[in-house]
Structures are given as C-alpha cells and as structure tokens.
Amino acid sequence: MLHTESRAAGNKTDLSYAPVADAPSGGQAYAPSDAAGLPVAISLFADRGYLRSEMQADAQLAGFRVVQSEPVAASEGGTARPLGDIVLVDAPAADAPTLALIERLAERAVRSGARLIVSTTIGALEPVMVSSKAADPVLLVEPGRAERLVAFGETLSGLFERRVRDLSGEDRVAVMRLVERVTVLAQKLDGLVGEEDGAAGAFAFATGVASPGRSFIHEEGGTMRGKPARLPTPQRVRATIRKRQLRARFLDAELFADPAWDILLDLTAARAEGRRVSVTSLCIASGVPPTTALRWIGQMTRQGLLVREEDRVDRRRAFVALSETALDAMARYFEAVGDCDCAGI
C-alpha cells in the first residue's frame, strides 16, 4: 500500500489505496483511503437538489466517502459538522450572501487543511474566484461530470503535496497537457455512455513575483534607451490572433489547441493597447473550455509568466497581466521573427 501525509499542517492523515475487496460498491478498484482504512472523506454543498445527487454519485464513483451532502448554507461554521478532506461547493450565482458564504467556507477549508473545489458559471466566475482565493481552490465553470471527476483527482493529488512539489516546471506543463487530454477523452466517453450508465473519471496531478522590469517601446515610435525590447503593435498581434482563429473554419480546432500561447498573445495585445484583461475575457480568448483555461492561467501564474491584479474600484473583479519577464520574452520573440507572415501562428 502507498502511504503519505496529507497537505494540512498538523493533520497527519495517512492516505493509502484500498485493494479492490475493500472498495465501495460501484467505486473504483483502488479507492483513496485514510489511516483508519476508510475512503477519503468529501463534503458536498449545493442548493440544487438534482445537482447534489449527481455530485454525490460522482464522488462515490471516484471512491470517496461522502460525509455531507447539503445546501450551501449548511457549510456555515457555528453548528456545521467538520469538513471532509475534500470540499466541493456549487456557487452558480454571485449575490452578496452566496459570496459571503463562499469566503467563510474557504477560510474553514484553510483552517482544517481541506482541499476546496468550487463550481460556478462564467458570469459569476470572477467574484466567486475572489471570494474563495484564500483556499487556492480548483475552479470549475459549468462542469460536466467528466470535468468534475478530473477535479476530484486534482484535489486528491494536492493531498500528496511533496510529490507535486518535486515536479519540475517542465514536468508540470507536461502534466497539464496530460490532464487536458484526459479531460477531453473523459468527456467523449461520458457522452458515449450517457448519464445513467456511469461517468468516466481519471486522477491526474495538476499543477510570482515578476522579475525586474525592462522598458518597452512600440514599433511605430519611441527612442532606444539601453536597447529595450520592442513591443509589437497591437494591430500586429491582433492580426496574428485572427490568423490563428481562421484555421478553425477549415480544420478541427482541437488539432491546434494551444491555450498557453493564445493567452500570451491576447495579453501581449492588451498590454500594447493599454487595456486590462479580466479572467473571464482571458478564458474566452484561450479558445478552450473555461475550466481548462483556468488550469493554464493558474499554472502560468505559478511559473511567473502571469500576474494577477486586483480591481481597486470593484473588489469582486480579477484581472490578469503578463509579468515583466513574459512581456520581455514576447517582445523579443516578435523582434526575432521580424516581418515573417507566420509569426505567432
């Protein structure tokens, strides 16, 4: 059996994998278990009854022990029961009471060492993200059952913190691409087997401070001082983006999915235009499902390519920008390719 400690400071939960004979009926052949031999506990909170039932079925399919399956209000501290090792909450709306509940639940998750998953809608994404940021949650946007199962695997991997920490930056990018492929495969299989025949799931590992800045000038003007990197004009970057998007009119878009590059291009154009980019807008620009885009944004932020910015006027909004390191790299890339028509494609 494989044993490791949980991620929570002071919480010595021993995780192991139970053999098939000990797995819950209908669960996976190897279920994640705690020191007592019980499946890892999960708490589920959703106001929509049908969704709560679906979440519970998926959690049991993944081999978890459901210790709570209640409306979101039941997550409140006072009389609430202890949280499971993993917490999944559905927050489709961004009204003040819901956001307050999410913020308190995130704080509870941090104190207990639980891993948090928050599912929401594209319209509520930014305020929900801001409210839950204390727990560094896995965020899902209108997820299908396959995406939810993959998220269970991501949060479970967080319980094996040392193993994740040992991954190099290159390994983490490779894992991100593996998660993408697993998600697509699971979604296709989910569509084939249908809602009543079960869902396909897979567990996979998921995965700064900007470096000293340089000065940037646009191609159409400016003086060279200390040979700063030359930032491309927004028209040039937008033309590149349009050419990339044009391919989807003639060929399967999945052949060219490269969210990291699309994110870098969109943020480069925005910087040249002097415009801020919201998380929601960046998810759309990435050309992949919002949940996948959020994974890439998180990974690229951890690698120091992106930085998150707060909206000082509206605290519920979240912006993303290139770090100075990434901006320098993009400017120098466009300088290196010169006038080549294929630049950036």
In short:
It is built from eleven helices and 13 strands. With 345 residues, the chain is an alpha/beta fold.
Termini Cα gap: 47 Å
Q: What's the main sheet like?
A: 5 strands, parallel
Q: Write down the Rg.
A: 22 Å
The CATH superfamily label of the largest domain reads Response regulator
Mean model confidence by pLDDT: 75
Strand content: 15-25%
Looking at the structure, the CATH topology of the largest domain is Rossmann fold
Number of helices: 11
Biggest sheet strand order reads 5-4-6-7-8
Estimate the helix proportion, in percent. Answer: 40-55%
CATH architecture of the largest domain: 3-Layer(aba) Sandwich
**Uncertain runs:** 1-30, 162-167, 192-227
Number of strands: 13
